[in-house]
Amino acid sequence: MSSDLAKSYSLEVLNTITKIELIVEQWQRLYESETEASKAFLSPAWIMPWLRVHKQATPYFVCIYHHGQLIAVAPLVIEKMFAGSVKCLRIAGSSLSQYQGLMLSGPSRDGEISKLILDHIVDQNPVHIVHLTNVPDKSDFSKISNTYTRQSNALYCSILDLKKDLQVRKNARSIVKRAKKEANRKIRKLSASGQLSFSILDKREYNFEELATIMFGWKQVWLKEKALYSGFYDQKNNHKFLSKLIANDFNENNEIVIASIIYKDTPIAIAMGLVKSSTFHCYLTAHNPKFSDYSPGTILFSKILEWMKEFGLDRYDFLGYPEAYKTRFSNEKIDLMDIWLPLTFRGKLAMWAMQINMAQRIKTQFYKLPISIRKFILLLRNSYTHYTKF
To answer: Quick check: 106 pLDDT over 70?
Structure first.
């Protein structure tokens, strides 16, 4: 840490939403000065709705001031684990975010500010353990000593770099051209029976609570067809969060974008993402299962790429949890890590328990099986569950 910073900084912890609301404008300016992908989910537009929905999480925002000016904010929360016996410090929204940075601090300050914040946490010891999930492998925080790291369950983020794709000489190898070719073939078939259009939805014209309900319903059907499971779409808090996220008052800078394919005046495919710097981070996509034969997801993806080009965006981030279509349409990846910093013996026990997590390991291996085998296993499981009820 520079001696100048050490002499002139001041640190403040904000532990209520009311106090946090007082720094939102300064927080937003810090967010706008950041360019790292790992900071995309640290905006007021993302975190404030999450705090309002997840009231069981206690805010622990660490703010760093330099000559009275806010130069860094770490939007942390304290959550209880293992029946309330362990207090864990996490990034606010980490349960729903795909990857995480520790804090916003503007250009070139991450290393010294990270150490400053961690020194404070270790000195104050407000929790048993610090746990950050889906941290980019090359981030400053992943290099700090006394931490334990391993590859995240999300594995890595898949990214399509449009500039790199432009350098591909043969059209057949261009991801953008391949996606457009596939999309156009489906568009011709679908347009033969009705009008088809692409739209960026205006939050003033749509009921986003209803839209979130539609997306959740589509995803649940899709997961069932693929013999997959995600508790995300069964939790009311997640639905409530997304509804508030899309329509909240902080989304004035259009950081959160809803794109849709409209067929006969009705959305049949929807994508929700965050725009940060030159990147579109695609957080959630869903399509009407009745139109699966027309590949509405590919159509929407191709149209979003056209929209990105028009607005000067050159990176499409599929985020974590690799799937076949993400691999097919990407040309880069960012490895993701989970990081633990136990502060007490109880924290170490909690870390070991989280690392073992046999349920998650079994789930990960299960998803690697072919769809036909997954469906057969689930059929046996459901039959057994039905039999044991009698």
So the answer is: no
Q: Is residue 101 predicted with pLDDT exceeding 70?
A: yes
The total number of residues written for the chain in this structure: 390
Q: How many other CB atoms are found less than 10 A from the CB of residue 209?
A: 14
End-to-end CA distance of the chain: 67
- Exposure of 347 by Cβ count < 10 A (0-12 exposed, 13-18 middle, 19+ buried)? buried
Which residues face 206 on adjacent strands?
A: none
pTM score over 0.90: no
Segment 264-269 long-range contacts (CB within 8 Å, at least 24 positions apart): 264/194, 264/195, 265/195, 267/201, 267/211, 267/214, 268/296, 269/296, 269/297, 269/299, 269/300
Structure tokens at 369: 């099986």
Please, what are the domains in the chain?
Answer: 3-152+338-367 (3.40.630.30), 158-334 (3.40.630.30)
Q: What is the pLDDT of residue 95?
A: 78
User: CA 375, 376, 377, 381 torsion: positive or negative?
Assistant: positive
pLDDT at residue 389, as a whole number: 40
Look at the block and give the residue holding tokens 């046996």.
380
From residue 206, alpha-carbon distances to 201, 252, 266, 296 in Å are 7, 16, 12, 21
